[in-house]
Amino acid sequence: MLSVPAKVRIFLCVRAIDMRKGFDGLHGVVQEVLRQDPLSGDLFVFLNRRRDRVKLLIWEGDGLLIVYKRLETGTFALPAASGDSVQLSSAQLSLLLGGMFGEAIGYMRNQWDALASYVRDGRLPIDNNATGGENSVRTIFDTAGWCWQAWPS
After folding, report:
1. E-strand spans in the chain?
2. Helix and strand element counts for the chain (H, E)
3. 57-104: pLDDT as tens digits
4. Exposed, middle or buried by CB within 10 Å (0-12, 13-18, 19+), for 27?
5. DSSP codes, 68-109
6. 54, 47 Cβ separation under 8 angstroms
7. What is d(CA 126, CA 62) in angstroms, rounded to the nearest whole number?
8. How far is residue 33's CA from residue 62's CA, in Å, rounded to a whole number?
9. How far is CA 79 from the centre of its chain?
10. pTM assigned to the model
């Protein structure tokens, strides 16, 4: 898992980026589209049009570093945004890089009526313990591995 120091700001470029871009191309996107300084030490996140690939760009003090991830299945989820970029917390970045967040939210939306009825009639206990809640949902829908969490505000 990627660990980002608290002082590092994280910017997600909402525009789809050509993943053939390298150091110079992404450097230009940071300056022209995001209107940020690529040498600031902040972390910049770029997704392709299909949202199955992500590149991270960060200045390490003596050079730029690119981290590249390709999902074999699923897509990266975008938070709601207005404009060309969104500032993320490190928790939001972790959710984004997990790749399953968008699929989990889609599944939950499709099953919302069933979930609500299970809560109303007491078959699904409300529990602040993430493991307990996940185990309750797993027994009803026979689904494992979902993380029911929203973007922190």
Report:
1. 10-16, 43-47, 53-59, 64-70, 85-88
2. 5, 5
3. 999 889 999 999 988 887 887 777 788 899 988 888 887 887 555 555
4. middle
5. EEE-SSS-PPPPP-SSSEEEE-HHHHHHHHHS-HHHHHHHHH
6. yes
7. 50
8. 24
9. 8
10. 0.65
